[in-house]
Amino acid sequence: MERRRLRGSIQSRYISMSVWTSPRRLVELAGQSLLKDEALAIAALELLPRELFPPLFTAAFDGRHSQTLKAMVQAWPFTCLPLGVLMKGQQLHLETFKAVLDGLDVLLTQEVRPRRWKLEVLDLRKNSHQDFWTVWSGNRASLYSFPEPEAAQPMRKKRKVDGLSTEAEQPFTPIEVLVDLSLKEGACDELFSYLMEKVKRQKNVLHLCCKKLKIFAMPMQNIKMILKMVQLDSIEDLEVTCTWKLPTLAKFSPYLGQMINLRRLLLSHIHASSSISPEKEEEYIAQFTSQFLSLPCLQALYVDSLFFLRGRLDQLLRHVMNPLETLSVTNCRLSEGDVIHLSQSPNVSQLSVLSLSGVMLTDVSPEPLQALLERASATLQDLDFDECGIMDDQLLVLLPSLSHCSQLTTLSFCGNPISISVLENLLHHLIGLSNLTHVLYPVPLESYEDVHGTLHLGRLAYLHARLRELLCELGRPSMVWLSANPCPHCGDRTFYDPEPILCPCFMPN
């Protein structure tokens, strides 16, 4: 009798208005009506059609109906609950968030799995599953075009009578909580703290998974505490932008080695420590570089301002297991031996992006760079040699190899002392690269009035126009050539196309 009364109540709310309203409006009105009696709404979940769960959940979330949310999590008929999208752009109410996690708590402690329960993932990321709520609200498709799911099989815990099992035990699948983490001092708010407490208490059945992890300024003991609660094999994208010294990097290294599905790694600003011996320094470096043996999925490696890389680039690369798609070594000191090892490494044969920006190459012979470009010529799309101190004679040696980079789309070599004659020679070599659309080149040497870097703007405009005219003559007027150089006063980059876009240092008071 009670079940029949509930069914009638649901039908009266979801069907009686259908003559006068659109499906979407009908759902909104019915959800608001049902939530007026929260006890009835909770009791009705057993009979609620699957397609009405998302709109009712949205209404309960917006209206902060904590008890309804808690019950809906336990009866959620989809494998994923993308809560993060609902949280986007609003200040999440703590009690609302707690209600969802408390619903998981109840779910994970039940001996009998709810009949309709399918939940496997609570997704707290704000930029995933963007269409889920709009589709199920009726914005993108008919509400009634979605089939009813099959009933989930009940899962019972193993019971024993006189030492014998009365029922075969079914494995319990942990629920994953997906987050993107940015670790920085003062960033752990009350919501995050509550989540971490839940994960700590239910670590065996509630797995905190993180595809994107960013680490900024935060004490290492706090970082380690958080990483111990994260499923490290879930991390695919890691950025470490701290001002660590080598001993701190060594403490972090074992955690890096457990990120076996890591695809992208960015590491910057590792400084020397004067308090350790050379032997200890080598031990710490070896501890770090050896972790790459445990990263078989790594595709993109960005290292910036690593003090220890000179003379050790080969030590790092030989532990990288597969060819990389992106290699960015910037603002590091490298020896000629490092560049030779780089050109011979099997990891560079399939590069699509290569950046050596800020690596001083003035005293490096061009032949290893030439060999490097030849190795990657079939796949290289984006090449960055900014601020490398490359001279005219070095660039001339590289021109044939550059012309072999058939997939190249962007070339940037700003901040190098190159003359206009060599730039014209470069243009002739690149003109046949049909995929090349953007070239960022340095201000020609002839544009300077003196050794202090004072620009003669009229001369610069003339030289730029000369290159543009040459592009048109050679049949590539749409290829974008932008001249850029750091301002000698403030360091900001100034672009010229065709007239200079001046930084404030050149503007009259």
Automatic annotation (TrEMBL):
InterPro entries linked to this entry: LRR_dom_sf, LRRC14/PRAME, PRAME
Q: Gene encoding this chain?
A: PRAME
What is the protein name given in its UniProt record?
Answer: PRAME nuclear receptor transcriptional regulator
ATP-binding keyword on record: no
The UniProt entry's sequence similarity note says: Belongs to the PRAME family.
Cellular component GO terms held in the UniProt record? cytoplasm
Q: Which GO terms describe its molecular function?
A: nuclear retinoic acid receptor binding
Q: Print the keywords alphabetically.
A: Leucine-rich repeat, Repeat
Gene3D superfamilies in the cross-refs: Ribonuclease Inhibitor
GO BP annotations, alphabetical order: negative regulation of apoptotic process; negative regulation of cell differentiation; negative regulation of DNA-templated transcription; positive regulation of cell population proliferation
